[in-house]
Predict the 3D structure of the following.
Amino acid sequence: MSNRITQLFGIEHPIVAGGMVWCSGWRLASAVSEAGGLGLLGAGSMTAEVLREHIVKCRQATGKPFGVNVPLMKPDAPELMQVIAEEHVPVVFTSAGSPKKWTAWLHERGIKVAHVVASSTFATKCEQAGVDAVVAEGFEAGGHNGREETTTLCLIPAVRRATSLPLIAAGGIATGEAMLAVEALGAEGVQMGTRFALTAESSAHEAFKQRCLALDEGDTKLLLRKLSPTRLVRGGFFDAIEQAENAGASADELLGIIGTGKSRLGIFEGDLEHGELEIGQVASLLKGSEPPTVQQVFDELLDGYRQAKTRLTGC
């Protein structure tokens, strides 16, 4: 599957593992890169020095390209970027901010840049900012979502019309069949978060993985629209937020409920009752008693893609 995405990042398959907080450490990123995709470290839950440690360990584990995802709203984003430059990371995915802010700076240091968007308007701004690729993420995705709440199947063709940039589809993609579907809509690659968050190499807690592998349709919902729309798994934290929102809680009141460290508590430490559990809608398709390895996921994805293409085209 050679195309503009594989050529841009120097990878075999146009498959990117999302840089997720508390999930995307060096073990996951290096395993995805070793399997032929692009692994991303999730800097959103790392300090600068922790990020440096993960970059060093990732490079020791794989000689293949990998990158870092940096949420630009993070207060220490400048420190994270400095570490990325010092460690000569080849790729950065930026999100939650303006693509203009860091793209030129990163390019000056030989770093390729992709930016995550939730609308065709921001995709156009990405092209104007000079990014190398755009990730269009539909509202099925886990964690923080765009306020537009546009689904992936509506978003991808809209972004494809709006920009000529290499396009990566994200949000609700976890199978080879879905890869083929978004390719038909104009995407040249996929970014998967949920699929890789629930692998053996993910740094998420086993209790979190098991909870998400047992989800049914409707067990996630987009909440916190007054702050930053976030897809959450039903549970104690979810119930507290939903009840507060139904009672008309203000943004400040919601912040008081959230407090600090709730995503770490739920995803990394495995407190399913009090922690914040973030995962995508597509988790309901991923049944299993044990999290698969990254290589098993790649084998399944590529086989599903080939079989779906054969069914549709006969070749």
